[in-house]
Amino acid sequence: MIRFLIYCTTYFWRMERVIIAMALIVVLLLSCGIDQENTVDKGEKVVEIVPDSTAYFDSVYAPYKISLDTFFRNKFEQTHFYGTVLFAQRGRIIFENVYGYANLQTKDTLTLDHTFQLASASKPFTAVAILQLVEQGKITLSDEMHKFFPSFPYDGITVEQLLAHRSGMSQYTHFCDAPDTIWPDKHKTITNNDVIKIMSEIKPMINYAPNQTHYYCNTNYMLLASIVEKVSGVSFSDYLKTNIFQPSGMTHTVLYTRDNDDELILPTIGYNGAFNPTIDIYLNGVVGDKGIYSNVHDMLKFDQALYNGTLLQDSTVALMMTDHNELQSNGQNYGYGFRIYPEESTEGLGRIVFHTGWWKGFRTYFIRVPKQEKTIIVLTHIKRGKFLDIKELVSLIKSL
Q1: Which intervals hold domain Beta-lactamase-related (predicted)?
Q2: In-domain check, residue 224
Q3: CB contact at 8 A, 145 and 154
Q4: Of residues 120, 167, 226, 248, which has the active-site annotation?
């Protein structure tokens, strides 16, 4: 027993010496090896310790910043591009910049905060609003228009057909604009309710039977916005603000209805190819297919809200990005609120989900590559030159 106690005492004494020695070594290393500038001295070379990953990503993205700026600056110098640009991956901004002026007459400086009419790039927002109501059990994809508007003149047109552009209806921009007897006072704003009333009265000729084929038609998304108003009991503008813009943190985004100019935040002016400002026409009162003003940062927030479950369940977002039509001759398909380039048609770029827009001088591009979580947002306000090529834009950051 005595031998055992002596052994234990000796053992712990030795261990105590070892622990003290190790502690001294650590203290010496900490005091000699690291200075107050977060650097490690390795002989004559001082290596900075980066407190986070910012410097790493800056170095990775540096070549892309140069090539992307060169790409857009060339178009700007050819007077084919005026606007704002943002490229991101997994929510981290790779590149952002502005080219041109917010107002060509006054030469106001264009900033990343300036907002642009999204035109048809508003459609993903309308699709999200409808699918939120579906998730809440307030409507179904198979509900027909008669359920919401009993006087609607066509049978068999469903919510799903509107989302996927399979209703076969004609463009409201055509049958409302001519002949003049339909809407004689072109200074008076026309609204969604006005268009639905006109449809009930004159029953415009349809292009295809419901669900026969894909036919892209702005009337579909105008009607979807009206369904949102009917079911929610609030204006489409208020619904978007409460259920999409605010939850996503979009502070500069507004639905323009032609009577709320004072609500727009740093809006740009749209110009035609001759650099003349476009006119705010009566059709700007119709929403759902267009109408949202936003900027690149807010659009990135919307993009991230689709990834992180803020707005919809993951399975519902996947449904938006699923092919709901036959493949078109241009290699595209259409989901719910998004155009789609299937992966097999993109030459290694991955599946591309996007929507473009064009309306009265504005051209917009909202592009997503879900597999790599890449996002491209391009907002322009001068109609000059060709539309930007979606695949070409994605190829600019292909190797990331």
Answers
A1: 69-385
A2: yes
A3: yes
A4: 120
